[in-house]
Amino acid sequence: LNSSSEANIRFAFNLFKELNANDRSGNLFFSPLSISASLLMTLLGAKNNTEAQMLKALSVSKDGEVHQRFGKLISGINKPRANYSLSLVNRLFGETSYDFLASFIESIEKFYNAGLEKLNFKVSAEDSRRHINAWVEEKTSGIIQDLL
Fold first, then answer.
1. Which residues in the chain are classed under CATH 3.30.497.10?
2. How far is CA 20 from the centre of its chain?
3. Domain 1-80, second-level architecture
4. pTM score, two decimals?
5. Along the 148 residues of the chain, how does pLDDT read in single tens digits?
6. H/E/C letters for each residue in the chain?
């Protein structure tokens, strides 16, 4: 396993332990890879203590290559296969009143094939929720509905 895969496995087990800590009687379904991708994208904009905490939680180091390695992992996952379909899609939804750095947007596009879509969460929270749910439903061919 490469360091990116090992970090994802550690993160997945740690997250499972946390999510399962309070109720061990029920079923639990989540996508550690999708959560890792989301956190790594937001890590691109994190600084100082927040950045340090995120690096620790994700079990990655600040070596500058974590995003490149994850980008290669995404490319491998999204490679067409003859007998099954597997893909990882990403998008960040940000508040319209916030100015995002161009370098941040370029990095999420480059490493995670993700765009940033601005929504007016402050004024239209319910419309924003419906919009995100529709995007997820479309990208998962109707498999995931009403994520939020």
1. 1-80
2. 20
3. 2-Layer Sandwich (3.30)
4. 0.80
5. 567 778 888 888 899 988 888 877 778 888 888 899 999 999 999 999 999 999 999 988 887 788 888 888 888 888 877 677 777 889 999 999 999 999 999 999 999 989 999 999 999 999 999 999 999 999 999 999 999 9
6. CCHHHHHHHHHHHHHHHHHHCCCCCCCCCCCHHHHHHHHHHHHCCCCHHHHHHHHHHHCCCCCCCHHHHHHHHHHHHCCCCCCCCCCCCCEEEEECCCCCCHHHHHHHHHHHCCEEEEECCCCCHHHHHHHHHHHHHHHCCCCCCCCC
CA atoms within 13 A on the CB side of 143: 6
User: What is the token pair recorded at 4?
Assistant: 């990116």
* Residues ≥6 apart with Cβ < 8 Å to 129: 148
